Amino acid sequence: MERDPDYGAFMDKFVLEPTSSAHDQPLHGLTFAVKDIFDVEGYVTGFGNPDWARTHSAATSTAPAVLAVLRGGATCVGKTIMDEMAYSINGENIHYGTPINPCAPDRVPGGSSSGSAVAVGAKIVDFSLGTDTGGSVRVPASYCGILGFRPSHDAVPSAGVIPMAQSFDTVGWFARDPVILSRVGHILLQSPVMDPIKPSQVIIAEDCFQLSNIPNDRLGQVLVKSVEKIYGGHIVKHTVLGDYVKEKVPSLKHFMSKEIKEQEYNIPSLAALSNAMRSLQRYEFKDNHGEWITSVKPELGPGIAERVWEAVRTTGENVDACPSVKTELHTALATLLQDFGILAIPTVPGPPPKLQADPTTLEIFRAKAFSLLSIAGVSGFCQVSIPLGMYDNLPVAVSLLAKQGSDAFLLNVVESLYGTLKEQVEITEK
């Protein structure tokens, strides 16, 4: 008899009872897990690597984000495996094992919040906490067929969370249900429950959807038809985002290499945006962890070791131009979306890659993925990844972005759209 996958094997199980047991608390009766990047008093924060765990003491306090959801009435049932030092979007960990993708067991679960996504996707918990620097909530959400929310930068306190690169680090969360996603969001964002506001426009980034190898009638059109049904077709607009970014973010010239210009498979301005993000990410990662890495010389898995040591050796070339890129992109997208506009893009350029795929074969996929992921990362805007069922037996997702500080608005839009999106997926699949 074939053994069921042990989805719980990637969790360090313990129980933290809610600090408020009142039945009227918004998260009463819900369970959650936390990525092993959050401090929990009395436990070593392992950061995905046994050498890190060995050289660090148990936390003396619990991260405010974890305390907030405990106060909201939820029960924590454990910590989850993550990619080493949060430096991957794959979700594979050679030390602790790779959490099994509940949608596609032969595919990666996505990282670096891999265990947190799988815990939700496998229905072990109702929601979970992760972090997203370069895509570490959005990617595993899309790969595991669940909702994942990356909030506006600095919207949720990151105290008690090991930093990866502070210019981009965010505390995000996963859920299977848009109502739970919203409830967790209102707790973490400390935002009042507000009446839903209709989007003023939903802008489809046509060139971004062309990056995806999922047919557009199964991706972009599902969203468009759902928006038309709920809000009316007049709010749907279309843009070529790469051209807009190229025009409005002149500082990208510092990151526009000859190689990028010659890439036929990518959008040059967004590839340059990704270059800028990863340059500053490497620089800040080195500042945070370079001394520990050079003194301990930790054992690191394939792919991650190369990225970590590349960061440690970085000279910070062009890093001085990164603040200008961030400011210009923020202004450009705020002008494009205005108060209640939404930008729609694919979360990632296709289905999850196979387990233990050759890193070189993944390079084009990674390059396109970071072009998409860097839009919210560099601008500081909020983004939600929404599952759109399965295509060729693999999970598909779309993303919505709203301007920085519009997190509660975006959560409400997801609640309004979700049911119609599911119906549209079913119609399309027939």
Word description of this protein:
- The protein is an alpha/beta fold and about 425 residues long.
- It has a domain at about 10-190: Amidase signature (AS) domain (Amidase signature (AS) enzymes, Alpha-Beta Complex), CATH 3.90.1300.
- Helices cover about 40% and strands about 15% of the residues.
- It contains 14 helices and 11 strands.
- An 11-stranded mixed sheet has the order 1-3-2-4-6-5-10-11-9-7-8, with helices on both faces.
- Helix 5 (about 180-190) packs antiparallel against helix 14 (about 405-430), helix 7 crosses helix 14 (about 405-430) and helix 10 (about 270-295) crosses helix 13 (about 365-380).
- The longest helix has 29 residues, at about 270-295.
- The two termini are about 35 Å apart.
- The mean pLDDT is about 95.
